[in-house]
Design a protein that fits this description.
36% of the residues are buried. The radius of gyration is 32 Å and the shape is globular. Helix 5 runs antiparallel to helix 6, helix 8 packs across helix 9 and helix 8 runs antiparallel to helix 11. The strands form 2 sheets. A two-stranded antiparallel sheet has the order 1-4. A hairpin with a 2-residue loop joins strand 2 and strand 3. The chain is mainly alpha-helical. Helices cover 72% and strands 3% of the residues.
Length: 387
């Protein structure tokens, strides 16, 4: 007997078949997409292919760094006491370089000008310090604690004198060339360097000017045969507060904000009410004051100054500023410390050290290598053109 089933009874079955067909189409589409993604991934470059291959110049630079580290390690193993004593000397020398390098980096950061006369202002700072200390205050050896106020007063006078000289150089030689082609102020800076050098020659003569050796040479500490004396520590104790004060001035004060704004955009700063000329003169005043402080420390630590030492030491300090990152204050300090260490290791280590005759060649070779491999310096350039 046949039983007639109504069509509505097949509705659920038809719905199931339609749903199954939709799922099949979806799975097929997903499979196609998945296949395309796999094909795309297969054609994408691998991580090794995306990484740039080191150039011959980069490999050469890495080889030089590795050779220098190997040389330092061998000297450390052969004579660890001498190595650490020379290390401390390099830190002290680097502190003096840091004060001069900061003057370079301040001026370059705001004007993009390499003030080659800055090193000779440092030389005048040393001569001013000896003149003030010996002729005005009667500084001599064996005065005990009486040297503290004399050195402090000499420091203030030397910083003020060099600051005013540097600001005057900006007003006379650089300000009229503010909108001239960049080569014009550069040549002017070199000319001012020779003028100041001749002023020192006419003032003190061609011989070394001696300063009394008033810094104590007693030991601060002695560890494992390594002696650290007071004359080195005093240089650091004078340098660190000056550097901290400069950092506070640039980062926290109203005048420091004006300096940073002028370095970023002079026209916009002028429209916002900043006196651009006064700000630039103030920057030269601060840079010259740092050179005066460095001149005092150099004169009392090394105890001799000559008219031509500013140009040589100024170029070394400029190399330190480029090494750390021109326009970058912490970079200038780091570069100066490293240059001081390199100089001390070169002149003081025993195993295959080139010696003092090669110091300038090594320093300027470092400058060339930095310009080739990392023009922005170790910590990065901070100028309007360098970011």
């Amino acid at each position: 007997m046949w039983v007639r089933v109504p069509p509505a009874a097949f509705a659920p079955a038809r719905h199931v078949r339609r749903q199954a067909n939709r799922w099949n189409r979806t799975f097929a589409s997903d499979a196609v997409n998945s296949h395309e993604l796999v094909a795309a991934d297969a054609s994408a470059p691998t991580l090794a292919a995306r990484l740039p291959k080191p150039s011959v110049i980069t490999l050469f630079g890495l080889a030089l760094v590795a050779a220098m580290l190997f040389w330092l390690a061998v000297n450390l193993v052969k004579s660890p006491a001498d190595f650490f004593e020379i290390f401390l000397i390099g830190i002290t020398t680097g502190c003096v370089y840091a004060l001069v390098a900061l003057g370079y980096t301040l001026v370059y950061g705001i004007l993009e000008l390499i003030n080659f006369a800055h090193g000779d202002v440092f030389m005048l700072g040393g001569m001013f310090s000896i003149t003030y200390a010996v002729s005005f205050f009667g500084l001599h050896e064996g005065q005990g604690f009486a040297i503290v106020p004399i050195v402090f007063a000499t420091l203030i006078l030397a910083m003020l004198s060099c600051g005013l000289i540097n600001a005057s150089i900006e007003f006379v030689a650089y300000r009229p060339l503010r909108n001239a082609p960049r080569l014009a102020p550069l040549i002017t800076a070199i000319g001012m360097s020779f003028i100041i050098e001749d002023v020192g020659l006419a003032w003190k003569g061609p011989n070394y000017v001696s300063a009394p050796d008033v810094f104590p040479h007693a030991k601060v500490f002695s560890i494992g045969g390594v002696d650290y004396t007071w004359n080195k520590l005093i240089v650091v104790l004078i340098t660190v507060p000056v550097l901290l004060g400069l950092t506070y001035l640039v980062q926290q004060t109203r005048q420091g904000k004006a300096m940073r704004a002028t370095a970023q955009d002079k026209d916009a700063s002028a429209m916002m009410g900043i006196n651009v000329n006064r700000t630039i003169s103030f920057t030269f005043l601060i840079a010259g004051s740092l050179a005066g402080a460095a001149g005092l420390l150099y004169a009392l630590y090394v105890t001799t100054v000559r008219y031509d030492q500013g140009f040589q030491l100024g170029l070394i300090a400029f190399t330190a500023a480029v090494f750390g990152g021109i326009g970058n204050l912490p970079g200038a300090v780091l570069g100066a410390i490293l240059i001081g260490l390199i100089q001390a290791f070169n002149e003081g280590l025993n195993w295959h050290a080139p010696g003092s005759d090669w110091t300038e060649s090594i320093v300027f070779s470092i400058l060339i290598l930095i310009l080739v491999f990392r023009p922005e310096g170790l910590l990065g350039e901070q100028t309007p053109e360098g970011g």
